[in-house]
């Protein structure tokens, strides 16, 4: 028996489930397909990515503060110890509460959930194969592909799920690694490395490029490396990993010997008990039936080309999120899901990728929106005459001092002639929250003067954003 819907969505991650909810709110009959065997909605983000990693980052931060900062605040504690099992239980509880919450939202909005592997069976038909082999056919006026992405595996460093792992396994270790070797200096590796470094692991990061965090402003990335080095990270940049060998450990378990080559050709080896491969993610398209359905996709990147309405080359088949061009960010996928649903219902939504924020949840945090200084320079603008930079250090912030979190700065880049904000970069406490002000001002094409003349509460971290804006606008801050 075939069921009929206005919209069938393959994938119940941040893009798919949000698109389903918004489309249902607009009166469409919607089905959403999720293939996770435990029937957990929310995709990679809620199940094995954003949410569990942030839960562990917060728990590990508390542990680190108890060990190293309590005494300075006059708090005397004895025998602080780690219960990793309980920490993992808390993480799992956070995940479960959020994924089950999506199920409740589906019921509230009358979205029909199907559990199994979704596959295109034509421009208007989707085949769902359940875990027990049962096949259900769904007819749809429109089909949305929102299957997200998966960790990229290197051919010479294949995942074994135990010693050489992806981020999924690295968020569920049963014990703290003695030495975690991370291949890749991006945000995923640094976040997970921060978790295990705080809990007692030695952490070594091997990066092929000459710098960390290529998505970040260069000045921010340089300071991140300095800060994390003080926290105990070891970094080897310009280092090409060539392979790894897993051997039995002397005291049980296993050791992984990673082979690499330095920029000057020197052969290097690094020995750890766990190796995290965090070199990026690629679209998850296996089993979708793209070729059979005639949907074009790039064989190398896995990306699916779409137009401004998220249409593929096949009528009535659309794609969003990690499957299409742009940063692989959960909030990008969600906003695309909203925009797609509204377009499908005949609305004309607004989606501005130039004001897409990003955040990295190491400590201090990193957050940004707009252009980096390097990208501004690439437009042909010269310093001072073409663009201006205003900075304010958190060491001069009364609130940051009271918190005992003074590392980092706010950096605002503006057009020298118009004062319009081109980019904002925050390295500091609660940067992921502070960036919101900049996003709104940039969305409305505002200037540094607009932020500087806005009253910021005292004492607050937001004052640092106002001071950086004043420095960009007038060339000087008040308190630095």
The portion of residues forming beta strands comes to 25-35%
Tally of domains: 3
What CATH architecture of the largest domain do you see?
Answer: 3-Layer(bba) Sandwich
Q: Specify the number of helices.
A: 14
SSE-based structural type: alpha/beta
CATH class of the largest domain: Alpha Beta
Q: Could you name the CATH topology of the largest domain?
A: FAD/NAD(P)-binding domain
Enumerate the spans where pLDDT stays under 50 for 5 or more consecutive residues. none
Q: What global shape is seen?
A: globular
Tally of extended strands? 22
Give the rounded overall mean pLDDT: 96
Q: What's the Cα radius of gyration?
A: 24 Å
Walkthrough of the structure:
The chain is an alpha/beta fold. α7 links the parallel β10 and β11 (233-236). It starts with a strand and ends in a 6-residue tail after the last helix. Strands 1, 2, 3, 4, 5, 6 and 17 form a seven-stranded mixed sheet that branches. The protein has a five-stranded parallel sheet with strand order 8-15-9-10-11. Strands 18-19-22-21-20 form a five-stranded antiparallel sheet, sandwiched between helices. The protein is globular, with a radius of gyration of 24 Å. The chain folds into three domains: 2-151 and 282-351, FAD/NAD(P)-binding domain (3-Layer(bba) Sandwich), CATH 3.50.50; 164-279, 3-Layer(bba) Sandwich (FAD/NAD(P)-binding domain); 356-474, Enolase-like, domain 1. The protein is built from 14 helices and 22 strands. It has helices at 16-25, 43-48, 50-68, 84-108, 167-170, 187-198, 218-230, 290-293, 330-344, 373-378, 398-403, 431-443, 448-452, 462-474, and strands at residues 2-10, 30-34, 112-115, 117-120, 125-129, 135-145, 149-151, 164-165, 179-183, 202-206, 233-236, 240-248, 254-261, 267-272, 274-277, 281-283, 317-319, 358-360, 365-370, 387-393, 409-415, 421-428.
């Amino acid at each position: 028996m075939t069921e009929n819907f206005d919209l069938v969505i393959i994938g119940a991650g941040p893009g798919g489930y949000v698109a389903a909810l918004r489309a249902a709110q607009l009166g469409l009959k919607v089905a959403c397909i999720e293939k996770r065997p435990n029937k957990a909605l929310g995709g990679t983000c809620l199940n094995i990515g954003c949410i569990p990693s942030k839960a562990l980052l917060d728990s590990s931060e508390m542990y680190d503060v108890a060990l190293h900062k309590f005494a300075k605040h006059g708090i005397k504690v004895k025998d602080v110890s780690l219960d990793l099992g309980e920490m993992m239980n808390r993480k799992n509880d956070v995940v479960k509460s959020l994924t089950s919450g999506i199920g409740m939202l589906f019921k509230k909005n009358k979205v029909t959930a199907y559990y199994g592997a979704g596959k295109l069976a034509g421009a208007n038909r989707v085949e769902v194969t359940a875990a027990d082999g049962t096949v259900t056919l769904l007819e749809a006026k429109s089909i949305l592909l929102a299957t997200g992405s998966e960790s990229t595996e290197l051919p010479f460093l294949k995942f074994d799920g135990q010693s050489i792992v992806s981020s999924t396994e690295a968020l569920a270790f049963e014990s703290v690694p003695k030495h975690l070797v991370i291949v890749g200096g991006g945000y995923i590796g640094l976040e997970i490395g921060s978790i295990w470094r705080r809990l007692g692991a030695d952490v070594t990061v091997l990066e092929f490029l000459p710098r960390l965090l290529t998505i970040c402003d260069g000045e921010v990335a340089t300071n991140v490396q300095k800060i994390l080095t003080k926290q105990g990270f070891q970094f080897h940049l310009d280092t090409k990993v060539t392979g790894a060998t897993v051997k039995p450990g002397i005291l049980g378990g296993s050791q992984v010997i990673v082979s690499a080559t330095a920029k000057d050709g020197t052969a290097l080896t690094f020995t750890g008990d766990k190796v995290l491969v965090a070199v990026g993610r690629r679209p998850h398209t296996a089993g979708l039936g793209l070729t059979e359905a005639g949907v074009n996709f790039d064989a190398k990147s896995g990306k699916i080309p779409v137009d401004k309405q998220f249409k593929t080359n096949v009528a009535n088949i659309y794609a969003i999120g990690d499957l299409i061009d742009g940063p692989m960010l959960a909030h990008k996928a969600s906003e695309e899901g909203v925009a797609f649903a509204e377009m499908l219902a005949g609305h004309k939504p607004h989606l501005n990728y130039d004001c897409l924020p990003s955040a990295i949840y190491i400590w201090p945090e990193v957050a940004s929106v707009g252009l980096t200084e390097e990208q501004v320079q690439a437009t042909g603008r010269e310093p001072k005459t073409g663009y201006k930079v205003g900075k304010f250090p958190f060491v001069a912030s009364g609130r940051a001092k009271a918190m005992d979190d003074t590392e980092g700065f706010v950096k605002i880049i503006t057009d020298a002639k118009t004062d319009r904000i081109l980019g904002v970069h925050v390295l500091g406490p609660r940067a992921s929250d502070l960036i919101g002000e900049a996003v709104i001002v940039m969305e409305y094409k505002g200037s540094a003067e607009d932020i500087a003349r806005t009253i910021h509460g005292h004492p607050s971290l937001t004052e640092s954003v106002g001071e950086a804006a004043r420095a960009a606008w007038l060339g000087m801050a008040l308190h630095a």
